[in-house]
């Protein structure tokens, strides 16, 4: 690879977006795999790193990007030419990540992907799939014939949660924050606008909520759950806090339960992998917005403002 050039998005200062630069193709050392990246996610976690607001941060300059999909160019461990996804082991956190055409990654961060899989789907499915599965099955413990309300239902985690809950036999209500997203709630759910969320619009009390939004949406959703019902909290983009009247909370008798993929990831990994097969076959859907690396600003804006429909991915081919 010596002499070949490669484009990379390089973060030079926390709080400013990375700059697209040309640099020599990096070389892999023993224990590392060189991947020609084809697609990489832009996710809230990546933006937290760019903003310098995450517990694990790289020394700068650094390449962000915690998840990617590409083709193995050189490796002692993985077959050359294989389609793989890469994530974990500090990638995009302590180590240079995937917002680049060529990434050197630890061998242990490389996972084979079925040939022919859309790289954008391959790099984006795992977190929403495992989170949706953990929220519905492990944490909210949804049973057939229960009524489940999902917030952020046009988002990546939310839309998959709707589909996983519906397939568990639940009746699902999908809540979105803006009217433009009503049509993007998966057909398995009845779509409701957050500002119009009430016992009337939702059709009576629900047994469980999976909340991917937080803040005032979570507060309002809590009031719709039956006594002994469960609320699984996944995310808090709309607000990190809200106040609870403890007397009302005791009276309502609703459990608020965290979904933490860092502690639950391994136990749902096989289920998430199975969902990739169904996503690739079109049995399940995960909307993806695609951007070239030169359109990073636009991609980030769509994610930061909550306007994005589903996943935001940089295409690097
Ligand atoms: N607990 C875990 O282990 C875990 C794992 C994965 C993800 N997460 C978190 O779960 C959340 C959802 O993830 P995701 O990938 O589904 O994200 P996403 O696709 O961006 O969806 C988040 C949804 O939040 C809503 N939202 C409301 N206010 C927003 C704002 N100011 N900015 C952005 N979005 C806003 C939007 O829906 P409306 O427009 O309908 O309101 C948006 O669709 C994120 O906070 C993520 O960090 C947590």
Which terms would index this structure?
alpha/beta; Quinone Oxidoreductase, Chain A, domain 1; Rossmann fold; 9 helices; elongated; binds NADP nicotinamide-adenine-dinucleotide phosphate
Could you tell me the number of beta strands?
15
Strand % is 25-35%
- What spatial form do the alpha-carbon principal axes imply? elongated
What is the radius of gyration computed over CA atoms, rounded to a whole number of angstroms? 20 Å
Number of domains as seen in the coordinates = 2
Q: Class of the largest domain, according to the CATH hierarchy?
A: Alpha Beta
Helix-strand string? EEEHEEEEHHEHEEHEHEHEHEHE
User: How would a crystallographer describe the biggest sheet?
Assistant: 7 strands, mixed
| The CATH homology group name of the largest domain | Medium-chain alcohol dehydrogenases, catalytic domain
| Percent of residues in helices | 25-40%
Catalogue the unreliable spans.
none
Query: What small molecules does this complex bind?
Result: NADP nicotinamide-adenine-dinucleotide phosphate
- Classification by helices and strands: alpha/beta
Q: What is the CATH T-level topology of the largest domain? A: Quinone Oxidoreductase, Chain A, domain 1
Q: Kindly state the mean pLDDT as a whole number?
A: 95
Query: Number of DSSP helices?
Result: 9
Question: What CATH architecture of the largest domain do you see?
Answer: Alpha-Beta Complex
End-to-end C-alpha gap: 17 Å
Blueprint (SSEs and pairs):
Layout (H helix, E strand, L loop, with lengths): L4 E6 L8 E6 L7 E11 L1 H7 L16 E8 L8 E5 L14 E5 L3 E3 L6 H6 L1 H14 L7 E5 L4 H12 L3 E6 L12 E5 L5 H4 L3 E6 L3 H8 L2 E9 L12 H7 L2 E4 L2 H20 L7 E4 L4 H9 L6 E5 L2
Parallel strand pairs: 8-9, 8-11, 9-10, 11-12, 12-13, 14-15
Antiparallel strand pairs: 1-2, 3-4, 3-6, 3-15, 4-5, 5-7
The chain binds NADP nicotinamide-adenine-dinucleotide phosphate.
